Model the fold of this input.
Amino acid sequence: MTAANCVTCGDSVALPEDVEVGEIVDCGSCGTELEVLGVDPAELAEAPELAEDWGE
Amino acid sequence: MEVGLLYSRIRPDEKLLLTELRERGHEVHKVDVRQATFGLDAPPEPLGECDVVLDRCMATSRSRYASRFVEHYDLPVVNSPETAKVCSDKVETTLALSEAGVPTPETTVAFTTESALEAIESFGYPCVLKPVVGSWGRLMAKLESRSAAEAVLEHKETLGHYEHSVFYVQQFVDKPGRDLRVLTVDGEPVAAMSRSSDHWLTNAAAGADTESFDLPAEVEQLAREASAAVGGGLLGVDLMELDGDGADDEYTVHEVNHTVEFKALNAAVDMDVAATVVDWLEAKVAAEEAGNEATPAEVQP
Done:
């Protein structure tokens, strides 16, 4: 299993085997929404804030 | 086939599609529209190699422009920018449905708080005030009194963006605690669910309970007509039952979604929604290729 550090609290965040760049994961420690920027090596960033025109 | 996927966030819906496409051996080129640029002469690499491009942008503004550029490059795009334009704007959707004779809630648009208040008073209470662009039930207001209407209108005017001064006022439909979502591919209904909640908003994104729904023929037909009204493609058609007890045969179409999310639908129904969508994409690309291979004489009537 891949893991990367949360950019907010620094704790390790486990990523699923089939993780995709662009996917959102939650930090289990601090709850921050994190965007997967890279998978090899794994890299996380704080996910963008919800924008008004987001949706389906 | 080679599939381009425009995105800014990979939601569970995109992941279902990616998994299905790759398992079938298709090559997927993900293009993050936050990083790509779109010029006049050539598509951002590697979109030019793609047999079809899927617009899965979560931001409406990006979806509309990016799909328009893909069409400009002469590449097949799902959905078309015309469909995106109609579906992404509630005024456009309402007009398209009305012009096609598809039943849709009574709606009035006003451009000042004063005229909007007049429209609201004409509807009576409760009625609904919606943003013209937006999703997931956000910024929707069920107005139950004049004082509430005045407050919401003032707030909207203060929000600043000009779109909030396009006041979209709609009749409140006393639905039976649920609405219906029908997924259609080029008009053909492939799966449907009900979305139930004690709240007046029944969006799955807002936590409504979802359940598979057997479509009456009338709803299937309305879904087809709604799809045609907005230009077809891969769509989520939302309907409400009109009489409030769920036992009536009258329906109204209140929304058509062009970057439809189907995670909740996939969990509710006894079928693989992503597989059905990919089946449709494969057929669409095959038909496109067959059309391109035909000589001019063959395609003439």
